[in-house]
Specification:
By secondary structure, the chain is mainly α. It contains eight helices and no strands. α1 crosses α8, α3 packs across α5 and α4 runs antiparallel to α5. The longest helix has 25 residues. It starts with a helix and ends in a 5-residue tail after the last helix.
């Protein structure tokens, strides 16, 4: 899943749950939820595909583990108890949704790292380092039908709906 898929699907689930559990809107900060939804890729893609591409050769490493999300949760709970700061817990929720959206249960060696071994599975490609980064940017602007394009379109749809909802709420129906 890519940028819009992670953001849109995570926000969509959050706002639907918020309809049934209104208190959720006061517990989770949507800005930090969005950052959390991207956090595993923001950590892992540069490390595993660009900086350490020759040794790790994988864009799903530390940030895509339960250990990462649980560590964020513990930090978040500590900060909430000390300062009543909910931001890190919101990051944690977004990060955990990222793992679900990436279907990490299909890669248990990564999901349960380090309990199933210290090495991450390698995902060799013909390109590494900066070439990977350039191809990733290029592919972001090239549409091809795949599983990830479905989630991207769904995510974009959710984002558009949420923006329209926000505009209507903010400016009123008669001004749009």
């Amino acid at each position: 899943m890519l940028l819009f898929g992670h953001i849109g699907v995570t926000l969509g689930v959050f706002f639907v749950l918020g309809i049934f559990i209104p208190r959720l809107k006061s517990i989770i900060n949507p800005k930090y939820l969005v950052i959390g939804a991207l956090l595993p890729d923001l950590v892992d893609k540069p490390l595993g595909r660009v900086i350490f591409s020759s040794t790790l050769a994988n864009g799903r490493i530390i940030g895509h583990t339960l250990l990462f999300s649980l560590t964020l949760l513990l930090i978040g709970l500590y900060l909430y108890k000390k300062r009543e700061d909910i931001r890190i817990i919101s990051l944690t929720v977004g990060s955990f949704f990222h793992l679900i959206e990436d279907q990490m249960w299909a890669i248990p060696k990564t999901l349960f790292w380090p309990f199933m071994g210290l090495n991450f599975p390698k995902n060799y490609t013909d390109y590494t380092g900066m070439e990977y980064l350039i191809r990733m940017i290029k592919n972001s602007f090239t549409f091809s039908f795949s599983y990830s394009s479905i989630s991207e379109v769904l995510g974009m749809g959710v984002i558009v709906i949420l923006i329209l909802h926000w505009l209507i709420k903010r400016f009123g129906q008669s001004k749009i």
